[in-house]
Design goal:
The complex is a heterodimer of chains A (198) and B (246). Chain A is α+β, with helices and mostly antiparallel strands. Helix content of chain A is 20%, strand content 35%. In chain B, the strands form three sheets. In chain B, strands 3-4-5-7-6 form a five-stranded mixed β-sheet. Chain B has a four-stranded antiparallel β-sheet with strand order 9-8-10-11, with helices on both faces. Chain B has a two-stranded antiparallel ribbon with strand order 1-2. In chain B, helix 2 runs parallel beside helix 4. The longest helix of chain B has 28 residues. Classes of the chains: A alpha+beta (198), B alpha+beta (246).
Chain lengths: 198, 246
């Protein structure tokens, strides 16, 4: 039986190193609201994105300077793209997908492997549920892509880009359903049912 | 506190609103009531009504206020102009609300894992919509649910409750009249797991034994409050009965 845990609830009575938990006197406690399933696995339901190097992120260009570009990643620090890594210029409001190269001690985020995304729509998505949106071996994402007839890029930071030619209203409905039902089983069936209706 | 009235606060062992000395008022919490906030909660505790909204961690403004080692917590407790029968004046910061914001900040700073988000700030807004004695403890109970709903990592949940004394009787969860005309009003906030004392503000005088009794009663009532908080958070993920029309 799946059960909801809240901060301070015991996950295991042994010392384990699990993300979003902490140990005290040999017991592991949750720090965020989450779910513990039958096997004792802890799945956080709400998290705040903390950048890690090698993460693929999507951002919006919010600042243009001679040295490079500031990119909004939906977190407290802006990402930075040095101009020398770019073949073409970017402009304000451009959507980009990039790789986090380094995170400095002071929190500065350097981006690499930058690719400009064509016009489309940006959607915010809770980071704890991204795994469900992508599905096992991208099964869910491929299903959605096929139904909406366009391209989708998912960033680890919770920003999702959808290409302009796709059926965006249908995509939004699918996304809302994933957000609402992410903690339930049989999600792929529910999504395919929704997509088939169209 | 401090005012005098001929009104009896305890009649035949029962309080003015018919409660037993250690009985707290009915509580209802709903999490996730604001769409634009990262986390939010609405609490009704007796006639108290408080809405809480949590934003962040986000860029620290002003920037020189940022701490390179941890997130800073900003709490704004505020009373709406229509919150109580007495004149609370214009909306906005007052001497009273600044003090309460400060003590509540002290509570949340001790449970949030602030080191995880350096150079950022976390804003907690606590707006009192209706006041009837014990708004600061009501606000803390709402704030912690909003923080949990936001997904901000915390060591523990907390609960807060007021204890006090009226006509020589130790009572729990004081209502407005007991607060104004009783002998003592003591706001207590504890962490749920370890029962660490995070806030203790005593108005009036109490003996050591009386304080111990209030703590004992608070710990018992805290379990009920914790249950309510957990229920509110679980309800967000409950099986929704109503069919969603697409």
């Amino acid at each position: 039986m799946k059960k909801i845990v809240i901060p301070g609830d015991i996950i295991t009575s042994t010392e384990m190193n699990i993300p979003n938990t902490y140990n005290e006197n040999g017991v592991t406690y949750a720090t965020t609201i989450g779910m513990v399933d039958e096997t004792g696995r802890y799945v956080p339901l709400r998290t705040i994105y903390a950048p890690r190097s090698e993460d693929i992120v999507i951002g919006i260009v919010v600042g243009v300077r001679s040295a490079g570009y500031s990119v909004d990643l939906g977190i407290s620090n802006y990402g930075f793209i040095p101009s020398r890594f770019l073949k073409r210029k970017l402009s304000l409001g451009d959507f980009v997908v990039a790789n986090i190269r380094t995170i400095a001690d002071n929190g500065d985020i350097d981006l690499g492997d930058v690719r400009k995304l064509p016009d489309g729509k940006m959607v915010e998505f809770p980071t704890a549920k991204i795994a469900r949106l992508i599905g096992r071996q991208s099964s869910m994402l491929n299903l959605i892509k096929e139904a909406i007839g366009g391209d989708v890029v998912v960033g680890n930071n919770g920003y999702i880009w959808v290409s302009e030619e796709s059926n965006i209203p249908l995509f939004m409905k699918a996304v809302d359903l994933v957000i609402e039902r992410a903690h339930t089983s049989g999600l792929t069936d529910q999504i395919s049912e929704l997509l088939k209706k169209r | 506190m401090g005012e005098h009235s001929d009104k009896k606060l305890i009649i035949d062992g029962k309080r003015v609103d018919g409660r037993k000395p250690d009985e707290s008022r009915p509580m209802r919490i709903q999490a996730g009531v604001l769409k634009n906030a990262r986390g939010s909660a609405l609490i009704e505790w007796g006639l108290n009504k408080v809405i809480a909204g949590v934003y962040g961690p986000r860029e620290c403004i002003p920037k020189h206020g940022a701490n390179p080692h941890k997130a800073i917590i900003k709490v704004k407790y505020a009373m709406t102009p229509f919150a109580s029968k007495e004149e609370h004046g214009r909306a906005g910061p007052s001497r009273r609300s600044s003090e309460i914001s400060k003590v509540i900040r002290g509570v949340f700073e001790q449970v949030i894992e602030v080191e995880r988000y350096p150079k950022t700030q976390i804003d907690i807004h606590l707006e009192v919509l209706q006041a009837h004695g014990g708004t600061r403890v009501t606000a803390i109970n709402a704030g912690i649910v909003a923080l949990a709903e936001a997904g901000i990592p915390m060591k523990d949940m907390v609960f807060a409750i007021a204890g006090g004394k009226a006509e020589g009787n130790i009572i729990l969860d004081l209502s407005k009249d007991e607060d104004n005309f009783g002998q003592s009003d003591t706001a207590i906030c504890m962490s749920h797991r370890n029962k660490d004392i995070l806030l203790l503000q005593m108005d009036g005088l109490l003996t050591k034994d009386e304080i111990s009794k209030i703590f004992e009663m608070s710990e018992k009532a805290g379990e009920e409050i914790h249950e309510k908080q957990k229920q509110a958070l679980s309800d967000i993920y409950g099986e929704k009965e109503q069919k969603v029309e697409w």
